[in-house]
């Protein structure tokens, strides 16, 4: 459940400790722990340091520069560190290098302020987990936390103590390639995942040298880019901002996130890297966030492209005054800060406050006491067997069975022959997705689907592999071989989808169709009449109508990481029963976008019998696969919905529960989902809103009651005066296994 809006970071730390799974509870700091002592003691130390700093040294703490892709630093960097003109790095990594630079900071700089090393450790450092959208499909915060914890372990072993993650942008437009980096379209779901990932990276105290400080990004509304085109304008009501885009950021603050990243987009006319309303009024004043904000890559300089600033100095002034503390890569604070001070366009107080926030995080990381990384850790921790096992397990839990007609899946391990077809079937490079951190270019140990299948079946099973065609290619010369492979086999598995670089940053698409001739390949293979299984690998929802209609089995595997092939084989052959669900809506056609489950009703809801209603002439209004959808190799029955009350007060709570039974023959997981509908209100409300979910495992025949609690936080909304409140009136509750259907209940919120 959401924490109280005013909860301090300390309170949040104590509260979320109670929700931690057993393995991390031990790490929770008792009252008066070293961590709390350190926190209490740092403020005087920060002030003492600031009193000794020159303006140049202060601006140095606000500067972040980029290393090379391979993790090395550039020729000018050591000297900048020595002179105290560089406070943090991105991309520089590797224990030796980090220690080398840190030694310069600690031994040769005047004030001995440690430098901070940041990196995009998004879904793993070297052991790569499923892309975040995939991981979110597990609907398992514990798995997201586990993956982030391991990423933190590996990154910190390489000297990286700050990750530019989690990305908590809500995305309702799959054309936007960065939808792959987040947790999908829903603010409640996104908030749960945001908290889990922050906990996973930071633990209870990111001063632990095996932890990293997290960064909630991209603040804010970056996912609302007009037309799904990356970096594009965003424009929305304050209600939409507060109800859809802000909640995961607030959840990250409640979980104690140490840093934020401002975004590239402008929001309602003010770029988010120079927006005092979001950066200061909401983040600092309302939410009491006391960490620092880093700009996105050159987003301070880009204020000139936005035409908010006509000079470099004006760009620096706008960003710093709005509340962007560290400038990533561009150097305008450094170049123009002193001049701006002299001209009274920037106050020393503003600079000091920014420096204070940066130093606070460095102190909390324990860098002043413990600036160096233990160089022995890198060899033992990175790609350890335990990490690879976790990557495989999380990957299996991330997969979504979209369709399984006539129980084509799971496959028997004793089949005589299997055709493995498709551009992605024997691919290592793409399986690690678009943010592959230190694994980029080091994919030798990535398990392909072909390798995973071979390892799964016995020597008696013949594997007939044929690529068929490239991902985005016109050439169909390979089709004949693929058709032959299928004809000679008992079953065909076709791995199709996108390349990793078709999603992620600067990877918007105007079409969501399968690229190239892959659909034709599927048609050709299916024409053999052999049972066919479609394995999707992609970073966004795709419009796969033909396949949804004509293929018997579809497994959505996203980009499943280092252990992808093993994990997919685990699921295809039934060692693991899939239990993932979609965290995003799959549209039928790109023209339906934005299409999301929690839409408003409209005055003329779609009605097939009435022309003058809200719909399309050429495509159904419903999605191809709804938010929350996902099947299992077993079946579940939900029954006996119970509410703890028929009527509650606006400040009251209510529990809603349902009995879930595994009625099939296999053990399996179901994600039980609770949605509410405010029947009538002073502002229009969504048709449904997710307010609770739980992934449970049941043996065949096993039955369990799952209970959810609804609080004022779940039932309230922003009214016409932008006050968050619970309005009296009727509510509906739906508990089901996707955002469509389910059992229904009713209750009422009384006047008082
Ligand atoms: C991206 C961020 C990333 C940063 C540093 C930017 O281009 O938008 O998500 O953290 O680069 O690599």
What does this structure look like?
- With 752 residues, the chain is an alpha/beta fold.
- Among the domains are: 195 residues, 3-Layer(aba) Sandwich (Rossmann fold), CATH 3.40.50.1700; 116 residues, Immunoglobulins (Immunoglobulin-like), CATH 2.60.40.
- The chain contains 23 helices and 26 strands.
- Strands 11-16-15-14-12-13 form a 6-stranded mixed beta sheet, with helices on both faces.
- Helix 8 packs parallel to helix 9.
- The longest helix has 19 residues.
- The two termini are 23 Å apart.
- The N terminus is likely disordered.
- Bound molecules: beta-D-glucopyranose.
- The site of beta-D-glucopyranose (BGC) has 7 residues, from loops.
- Beta-D-glucopyranose (BGC) binds next to loops.
How many beta-strand segments? 26
Alpha-beta content class: alpha/beta
Radius of gyration, Cα only, in angstroms?
Answer: 26 Å
Oligomer description? single chain
Spatial strand order of the main sheet:
11-16-15-14-12-13
Low-confidence stretches: 1-31
The proportion of strand residues reads: 15-25%
Percentage of residues in helical conformation: 25-40%
Small molecules in complex:
beta-D-glucopyranose
CATH class of the domain at 391-585 reads Alpha Beta
Provide tags for this entry.
single chain, 752 residues, alpha/beta, Rossmann fold, Immunoglobulin-like, globular, binds beta-D-glucopyranose
């Amino acid at each position: 459940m959401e924490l109280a809006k005013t909860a301090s970071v300390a309170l949040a730390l104590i509260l979320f400790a109670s929700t931690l799974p057993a393995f991390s509870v031990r790490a929770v700091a008792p009252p008066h722990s070293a961590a709390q002592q350190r926190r209490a003691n740092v403020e005087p130390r920060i002030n003492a340091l600031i009193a000794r700093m020159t303006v140049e040294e202060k601006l140095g703490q606000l500067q972040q520069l980029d290393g090379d892709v391979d993790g090395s630093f550039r020729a000018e960097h050591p000297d900048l560190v020595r002179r105290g003109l560089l406070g943090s790095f991105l991309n520089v990594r590797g224990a030796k290098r980090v220690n080398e630079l840190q030694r310069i900071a600690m031994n040769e700089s005047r004030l001995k302020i440690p430098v901070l090393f940041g990196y995009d450790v998004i879904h793993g450092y070297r052991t790569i987990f499923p892309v975040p959208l995939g991981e979110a499909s597990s609907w398992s915060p514990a798995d997201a936390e586990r993956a982030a914890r391991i990423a933190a372990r590996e990154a910190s072993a390489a000297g990286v103590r700050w990750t530019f993650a989690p990305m908590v942008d809500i995305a309702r437009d799959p054309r936007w390639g960065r939808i792959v980096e987040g947790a999908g379209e829903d603010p409640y779901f996104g908030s749960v995942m945001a908290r889990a990932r922050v906990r996973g990276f930071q633990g209870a105290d990111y001063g632990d040298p095996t932890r990293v400080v997290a960064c909630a990004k991209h603040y804010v509304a970056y996912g609302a880019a007009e037309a799904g085109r990356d970096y594009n304008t965003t424009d929305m009501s304050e209600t939409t901002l507060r109800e859809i885009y802000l909640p995961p950021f607030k959840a990250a603050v409640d979980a104690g996130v140490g840093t934020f990243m401002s975004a590239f987009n402008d929001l309602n006319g003010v770029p988010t890297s120079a927006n005092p309303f979001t950066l200061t009024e909401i983040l600092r004043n309302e939410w009491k966030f006391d960490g620092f904000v880093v700009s996105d890559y050159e987003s301070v300089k880009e204020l000139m492209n936005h035409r908010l600033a006509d000079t470099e100095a004006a760009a620096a002034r706008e960003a710093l005054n709005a509340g962007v503390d560290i400038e990533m890569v561009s150097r305008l604070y450094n170049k123009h800060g002193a001049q701006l001070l002299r001209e009274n366009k920037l106050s020393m107080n503003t600079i000091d406050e920014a420096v204070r926030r940066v130093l606070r995080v460095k102190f909390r990381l324990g860098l002043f006491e413990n600036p160096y990384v233990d160089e022995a850790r890198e060899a033992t921790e990175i790609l350890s067997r335990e990490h690879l096992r976790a990557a495989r397990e999380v990957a299996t839990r991330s997969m979504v069975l979209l369709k399984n007609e006539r129980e084509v899946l799971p496959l028997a391990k004793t089949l005589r022959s299997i055709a493995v077809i498709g551009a992605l079937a024997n691919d290592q490079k793409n399986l690690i997705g678009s943010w592959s951190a230190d694994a980029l270019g080091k994919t030798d140990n990535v398990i392909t689907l072909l390798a995973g299948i071979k390892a799964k079946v016995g020597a008696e099973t013949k594997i007939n592999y044929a690529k068929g065609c490239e991902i985005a290619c016109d050439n169909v010369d390979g089709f004949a071989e693929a058709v032959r492979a299928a004809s000679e086999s008992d079953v065909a598995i076709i791995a199709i989808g996108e390349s990793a670089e078709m999603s992620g940053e600067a990877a918007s698409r105007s079409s969501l169709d399968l690229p190239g001739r892959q659909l034709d390949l599927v048609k050709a293979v299916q024409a053999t009449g052999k049972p066919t299984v479609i394995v999707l690998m992609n970073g966004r929802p795709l419009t796969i109508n033909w396949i949804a209609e004509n293929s018997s089995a579809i497994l959505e595997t996203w980009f499943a990481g280092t252990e992808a092939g093993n994990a997919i084989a685990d699921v295809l052959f039934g060692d693991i029963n899939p239990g993932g669900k979609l965290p995003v809506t799959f549209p039928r056609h790109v023209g339906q976008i934005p299409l999301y489950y929690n839409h408003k009703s409209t005055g003329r809801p779609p009605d097939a019998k009435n022309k003058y209603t809200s719909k399309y002439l050429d495509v159904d209004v419903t999605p191809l696969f709804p938010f929350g959808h996902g099947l299992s190799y077993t079946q579940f029955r939900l029954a006996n919905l119970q509410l703890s009350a028929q009527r509650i007060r606006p400040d009251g709570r209510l529990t809603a529960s349902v009995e879930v039974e595994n009625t099939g023959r296999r053990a399996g997981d179901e994600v039980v989902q609770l949605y509410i509908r405010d029947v009538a209100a002073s502002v229009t409300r969504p048709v449904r809103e997710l307010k609770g979910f739980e992934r449970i495992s049941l043996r065949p025949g096993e039955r369990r009651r799952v209970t959810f609690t609804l609080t004022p936080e779940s039932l309230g909304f922003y009214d016409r005066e932008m006050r968050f409140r619970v309005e009296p009136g009727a509510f509906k509750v739906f508990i089901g296994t996707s955002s469509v259907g389910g059992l229904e209940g009713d209750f009422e919120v009384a006047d008082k």
